[in-house]
C-alpha cells in the first residue's frame, strides 16, 4: 500500500523534509537568541537614559574604553569650548537622511583634560566637500554641558573606513585616541553627544535619542520558524495520504475496466 514511498521521488522528498525540520528549529532558536539580546540592549539603553546625570570623569578617563553599561549614560562637564581645534565628521546624516557633518568640538575641563563633544549635525556648504563648512559658534566662557556618553568610533564597530588624506580639520570617525594624538592633550575616552545647552536657532541640530531595537520582530520570526518546522511533517503526511488515495482510485478504475464485458461489434 505504501510501496511508493520507496520510489526515488519520495525518498528525496522525505530526506528534504527530515533536513528542513531541524534547520527550521535552529533558525527559530537563533531568532529567539536575537530577541533576548535586543531586549537586553533595549533595557540597558533605557536604564542608562533614565539614570541620574553624573560628572563625566566618574565614568571615563584618558585611555578608557566606554563599556556597553556606560554607553548613553547622561554626564555633565564644566569647562569651555575650544573652537580653534574644532573638526567636522564627514558623511553624517540627519533625521531626514540629508548628508552633512557632525561638529566635534574639544571641551577643555577645569583640570585641563579634554572631552570631545559632538554638538550636532550641520548641512554641507554646497557641492564642495573640501572647504571647511560654516559652523555656528558654541557659548563662550566657562559653562556646564550635559550629554550622552558614547564609546569611541572604530572601523570595526561602525563599518566606516578611516580614510587618509582628508581636507584640513575633517575626520571620518570620532575616535578619542586619534584626537588625543592630534591635539597633543589628555583626552577622555569616548565622546559626548550634547543635549544641553541647546544651540541658538537649532543649529547645529542636536542628535536625537536612540530608539529601541525591534525585538518583537525577532520573537515573531522565531515562532514562525517553529510553526514551519511543525508544518513540514504535517504536510508530508497529507501528501502521502493524497498519493495513496490517488493510487488506490487508479487501481480500482483499472480493475473495473478489466472486469467489465467487452462490447460486441454491431452486426452489418
UniProtKB/TrEMBL annotation:
Main location group: membrane
Topology term for the membrane: Multi-pass membrane protein
Membrane-traversing stretches: 219-239
Listed Basic and acidic residues bias regions: 248-258
Disordered: annotated segments: 248-268
Keyword flag Oxidoreductase: no
GO CC annotation terms, alphabetical: plasma membrane
Keyword flag DNA damage: no
InterPro entries reported in the protein's UniProt record: Surf1/Shy1, Surf1/Surf4
Top-level division of the source organism's lineage: Bacteria
Database matches in Pfam families: SURF1
This protein's UniProt keywords: Cell membrane, Membrane, Transmembrane, Transmembrane helix
Location in or out of the cell: Cell membrane; Membrane
Family statement drawn from the similarity comment of this UniProt entry: Belongs to the SURF1 family.
Name this protein carries in UniProt: SURF1-like protein
Organism: Streptomyces lacrimifluminis
Lineage of producing organism: Bacteria, Bacillati, Actinomycetota, Actinomycetes, Kitasatosporales
Amino acid at each position: 500500500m505504501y510501496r511508493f514511498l520507496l520510489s526515488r521521488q519520495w525518498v528525496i522528498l522525505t530526506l528534504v523534509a527530515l533536513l528542513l525540520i531541524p534547520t527550521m528549529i535552529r533558525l527559530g532558536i537563533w531568532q529567539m537568541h536575537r530577541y533576548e539580546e535586543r531586549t537586553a540592549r533595549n533595557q540597558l539603553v533605557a536604564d542608562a537614559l533614565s539614570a541620574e546625570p553624573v560628572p563625566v570623569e566618574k565614568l571615563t578617563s584618558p585611555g578608557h574604553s566606554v563599556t556597553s553599561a556606560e554607553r548613553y549614560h547622561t554626564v555633565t562637564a564644566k569647562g569651555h569650548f575650544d573652537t580653534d581645534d574644532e573638526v567636522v565628521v564627514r558623511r553624517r546624516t540627519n533625521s531626514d537622511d540629508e548628508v552633512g557633518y557632525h561638529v566635534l568640538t574639544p571641551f577643555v575641563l577645569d583640570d585641563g583634560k579634554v572631552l570631545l563633544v559632538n554638538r550636532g549635525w550641520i548641512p554641507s556648504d554646497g557641492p564642495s566637500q573640501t572647504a571647511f563648512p560654516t559652523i555656528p559658534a558654541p557659548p563662550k566662557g566657562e559653562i556646564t554641558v550635559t550629554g550622552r556618553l558614547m564609546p569611541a568610533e572604530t572601523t570595526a564597530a561602525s563599518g566606516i573606513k578611516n580614510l587618509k588624506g582628508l581636507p584640513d580639520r575633517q575626520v571620518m570617525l570620532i575616535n578619542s585616541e586619534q584626537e588625543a594624538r592630534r591635539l597633543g592633550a589628555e583626552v577622555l575616552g569616548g565622546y559626548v553627544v550634547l543635549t544641553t545647552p541647546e544651540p541658538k536657532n537649532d543649529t547645529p541640530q542636536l542628535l536625537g535619542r536612540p530608539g529601541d531595537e525591534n525585538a518583537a520582530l525577532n520573537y515573531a520570526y522565531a515562532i514562525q520558524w517553529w510553526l514551519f518546522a511543525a508544518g513540514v511533517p504535517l504536510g508530508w503526511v497529507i501528501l502521502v495520504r493524497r498519493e495513496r488515495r490517488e493510487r488506490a482510485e487508479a487501481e480500482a478504475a483499472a480493475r473495473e475496466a478489466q472486469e467489465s464485458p467487452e462490447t460486441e461489434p454491431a452486426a452489418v
